[in-house]
Amino acid sequence: MYEGDSFFTLTLWGRMGLLALSVLFALVALAVTRLMTYYRPLVIRIPIWAVLFITFVWASPQGYYTYYRLIFDGLPAQSVLGALPRPEEMIALLTFRHSATLSAHSLGVLGWAMLAIAIWPRRRKCRDAAN
Q1: Which of 16, 59, 95, 104 is most buried, by CB atoms within 10 Å?
Q2: Secondary structure (H, E, C), 18-42
Q3: Nearest to 76 by CA among 87, 65, 86, 89
């Protein structure tokens, strides 16, 4: 399925760096989702998740481009941010109907993981531990 994916055109070290960067980005996105949704009611957590996921999909290409500038000579310093993703693109990512690439499928998995963290039930504090 991923035979022609651009990930496999990188050197071993390039792939390892890209994988490390992706894990870092995912962990940060998950942590921010947790921080932004933990003490909020469920009705607010869903829109917060949507904004965070859309923001990640929109902004993360700049981080990856910065990494590519480190491993490829001659890439110019530029912004690669475009317009915010359209709703149908976000739905395609989350339903794995977007392009059949590691990047698109990873974004879909991350979106669902962020949603799970956003809606995960919160523990209620016990008011009286003695009882």
Answers
A1: 104
A2: HHHHHHHHHHHHHHHHHHHHCCCCH
A3: 65
User: Measured in whole angstroms, how far is the alpha carbon of residue 68 from the centre of its chain?
Assistant: 18
- For residues 8-30, give the mean pLDDT: 96
Residue 30: closest CA among 112, 105, 95: 112
| Residue percentage of the chain with pLDDT more than 70 | 93
Segment 84-93, tens digit of pLDDT: 999 999 999 9
Secondary structure string (H, E, C) spanning the chain:
CCCCCHHHHCCHHHHHHHHHHHHHHHHHHHHHHHHHHCCCCHHHHHHHHHHHHHHHHHHHHHHHHHHHHHHCCCCCCCCCCCCCCCHHHHHHHHCCCCCCCHHHHHHHHHHHHHHHHHHCCCCCCCCCCCC
